[in-house]
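Pipeline run #58 for the internal structure catalog. This entry was flagged by the ingest filter as a single-chain record with no existing model, so it goes straight to prediction. Upstream metadata was stripped on purpose; only the residue string is passed forward. Reviewer on rotation: M.T. Logging verbosity set to normal.
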Amino acid sequence: MPTAEILSQGDEVVTGQIADTNAAWLSERLLEQGFDVVRHTTVGDRMADLVAVIGEIAARADVCLCTGGLGPTEDDLTAEAFARAFDAPVALDPVALEQIEERFRSMGRTMSPVNRKQALLPQGSVRLDNDWGTAPGFALVGGRCWFACMPGVPREMRQLWEHRVLPLLADRFELRPGRRVILRTIGVGESDLQTAMLGWSAEGVTVGYRTKLPENHLKLWFEATVPEDEVVARVREVLERAGRWTYTIEGLPEVADVGVDAGGGTLAAAVGRRLLARGETLALAESCTGGRIASACTAVAGASAWLLEGLVTYSNAAKVRLLGVSEADLEAHGAVSEVVARAMASGVRERSGATWGVGITGIAGPSGGTPDKPVGTVHVAVASPDRVLHRALRLPGDRDRIQSLAVASALELLRRQLHASN
């Protein structure tokens, strides 16, 4: 298995001003193609450090994907660093220069002279045309390693990977793409998920975990030698251990039928697919989440087919006026209560004409808590045509975390009811 490394350049990455999402994304792409990713290296805008690291990687890796440092400013050092590392002076690439000038013309702007620097590429390198930005990339061989240098802008980098770098990799290496299957779970901690998987193993399969609040992902990496029917069989085995928490699966063969939603994506997307399949609709009444459930739903393409409306009824007056919540109930039980959450869910369902209604009310903090109702107290209710289901929650964390967990809890309660009411 060929070895690969990721090299990221830029002071803003080293100092934490921006997160290096490029390295994680590229590592996954390399893994998918059968490479063994052994290192991530990040170097600031210092020429000597860059030249030294490039030389080290050239002596030990088969492939290195580099991001950043291709801009027009003085701290963009990648091309010059490679030129020094391999004694291949930079030279003006006239095609690259014309492409950069045309890019500016297409935006109705005149290219600044400093952008000419972006057309200076190490001699002997292969230009990677950038149709999505101003900075071309380049590829070259140094030592035992094949390097591909791409812009740091994630949108541009991903396009260059797909349209420029991957085809060149396929020409140089015998790619053996495996299959990655991800079980996206909700309502279980990473340690409990790992405990559920204790003792399970299969030839050609690697198990991994990833926490992405409010979810945990169980990742199965199948080597290229594992046939599709065995992939499905192994996933079924894993579902026997983790299926009660799994709301969707990504990466299964299209022919697979494992009894779990296999459309992938977010919890809202899984809920939407279920509603769409049933020909049913949803309406939302939110207080403590401030519209974040509606935002999660409307982020799903085609949500208009199943989401009718969402109301942010933050004040008691809004709950009474828009949802029909009883003033007497608000006085007796308070806005953060089971009674009010049930009334919100029923009220938005009935007034909108939706099949399902969700009501949520709580204390997201950092202030507003009491001994009886501390910060993190949340009541969520799901109303269907024949009943209203309620759940009381005590959620940990700061305001953003509490709201995020509340959104997931509401959608998961709805998802479970959609499956239970077949």
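catalog note: DSSP finds 14 helices and 17 strands in the chain.
catalog note: The chain has a mean pLDDT of 95.
status: ready for reviewer M.T.
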